[in-house]
Amino acid sequence: MKKIVVTTALLAGVLSYAGGFRVSLQGVKQLAMAHTSAHTEDASVTFFNPAGMSFIPAKLSVAAGGFGAQSTVTYQNMSTLQSYETDSPLGTPIYAAIAYKVLDNVSVGFNFSTPFGSTIEWPSDWAGREIVQRLELKAFYFQPMVSFKLSPWASVGGSYIYAKGSVNWDKAVTQLGGSLNLTDDQASGSGFGVGFYIKPTEKLDVSIAYRSPIDMKADNGTVSFNISQALYPNLGLDAAGTDSFKATLPLVDEYTVGLTYKITPKWLVSGDFNYSGWDRYNELTLDFENAPIGNQPNDATILVSPKNFKSTRTYRIGTQYQINDMFAARAGYYYDESPYSDKNFQAETPSFDSNVFTAGLGINVFKGFGVDLAGGLAFPKTRMVENDYNNFYGQAKAKAYYFGLGLSYNAF
């Protein structure tokens, strides 16, 4: 039988929990100020910089929150003017954190978060149905950590990161007269984070943090074909029409430098610079057990898909004004870069250069207990899709908004 090559754009992103973008929703208070990092009011700082635990103004601090994230992507073929729009469900990233001062100069903590993950659903008959029809991605970070206060104004900290992820992908395979699904709920990897936190004066906070790359390994993925059973033997499928695959996706490292300055006792301004090394994500290799759906001349079960990502920079600025003892108003802006060019546009995980505006409110309900509200509105820039490799051309637009509710408690 003629070798069958499945559209590689599908498989290129099968484990791409970030999809070339990172979901910046790990702290409601932080989101309200453009997701800036140099804040040590409670345990939510643990995701951004483990060293910040040393400056939390409580021996025991807990924080938790959740978000709603909604996005819509529109694709239009500029030759036929036919357009398609996603109908994706609301994303719900969550986080929880705890920090405890074991000694005056030693703090330990734990952070749980969902920094990567989304669901995108295109019409089943859209122009890119061989790339993706529906894709659900989830990733969870579990981070135990420790921080040491080196002096009254400086600390250092580190964390171990265990990442767990899953993927559920549907797409059409017209060459076979049907569709397929790729599933893996056991992908995992590990990494680390380190940071320094400095308070040279009461007015200035400086946060310097690094999060290592993580290789997410899928050793037990399953590909299920919805095609004629007569084709099963030619593809090496079992009686259920399934095969297995292995893959490793490199999640990238991230550098962050953050500053917070108190202009007055009630008014502070924060700024962040983030660098993500996406340029290590040049290609993705998937190794199928039997199915000859690859693109390598020496082994038809191996599929190598080019990604050609580039490293990105994100600039953030936020502010907070303490209206009175109970309420604090917050606002921010950041510019987010896409990690790939128009020629490498990924329909399964769309990414755009975006201007994002945020705002929020902090409420001090009673001593030590706070409620935070935040929202964000993104304005992605229109892209002209020119992906020669996937034979995919047209115009892509998007819109997105976020909202969140967070709770924090500094016990004692």
UniProtKB/TrEMBL annotation:
Topology in the lipid bilayer: Multi-pass membrane protein
UniProt-annotated location(s): Cell outer membrane
Pfam family, one: Toluene_X
Alphabetical list of Gene3D superfamilies matching this protein: Outer membrane protein transport protein (OMPP1/FadL/TodX)
Superkingdom per UniProt: Bacteria
Keywords from the named record: Cell outer membrane, Membrane, Signal, Transmembrane, Transmembrane beta strand
InterPro entries: OMPP1/FadL/TodX
SUPFAM superfamilies listed in its UniProt record: Porins (SSF56935)
PANTHER family: OUTER MEMBRANE PROTEIN NMB0088-RELATED
Similarity comment: family membership: Belongs to the OmpP1/FadL family.
Name of this protein: Aromatic hydrocarbon degradation protein
Organism: Kaistella solincola
Organism lineage string: Bacteria, Pseudomonadati, Bacteroidota, Flavobacteriia, Flavobacteriales
